[in-house]
Specification:
Structural class: mainly alpha
Number of helices: 10
Oligomer: single chain
Number of strands: 0
Order of helices and strands: HHHHHHHHHH
Shape: elongated
Distance between the termini: 54 Å
Helix content: over 70%
Number of domains: 2
């Protein structure tokens, strides 16, 4: 990535990470706190990484890229948890006779990890609302099919759109209701 592209990317992502509060006065307070270094890693690690990447960009591009990579690590954790969640939801609906406590546990562990990440880094809330759930779903399908031992299925049936909205996947009540509705009898 060219230096100018990197700087623009860091600035854009920093705005996204910090733009999580709808109240304009609170948003201005958060932005001011970040710029005055009051906003710490303990408050929002994700936003802090982007802030540090911006701060170091002119001084040390390599350090800026390290901070950027740390922020992306938070994003990868969210995506990975969503992929595992979708993988198990696919299996839960396609093979009700195989449902197990470990699938149930994995569904809620993935969801709890997402919740913890969002709690630790509120800046990720904006990221997760804009995540490409279709792309993550398309990555989860072959994994689920392989685990269900339906090897030819993926190639015989063109992929469909993700049947779940990100808002549903983030809602514990919806998730619990869905699991109960699709539970084997």
């Amino acid at each position: 990535m060219e230096k100018k592209e990197l700087q623009e990317y860091i600035q854009e992502q920093s705005k996204l990470a910090l733009g999580i509060i709808n109240d304009k006065s609170k948003n201005e307070m958060v932005f001011e706190a970040v710029m005055n270094d009051i906003y710490s890693r303990e408050i929002d690690e994700y936003a802090w990484f982007y802030k540090k990447a911006l701060e170091y960009f002119e001084k040390d591009t390599e350090a800026a890229e390290c901070f950027l990579e740390m922020a992306k690590s938070n994003e990868r954790t969210i995506k990975s948890c969503l992929e595992i969640l979708l993988d198990h939801l696919i299996k839960w609906t396609c093979q009700p006779s195989q449902q197990s406590k470990s699938w149930y546990s994995s569904i809620f562990d993935s969801r709890s990890t997402i919740d913890r990440e969002l709690s630790d880094s509120p800046g990720l809330k904006k990221f997760i609302k804009n995540v490409d759930i279709e792309h993550i779903y398309q990555r989860a399908i072959p994994r689920a099919i392989c685990e269900m031992q339906l090897y030819g299925y993926y190639f015989d049936h063109p992929s469909k759109a993700c049947p779940w909205e990100i808002e549903q996947l983030l809602d514990f009540d919806w998730l619990n209701e869905f699991i109960q509705q699709h539970k084997r009898v």
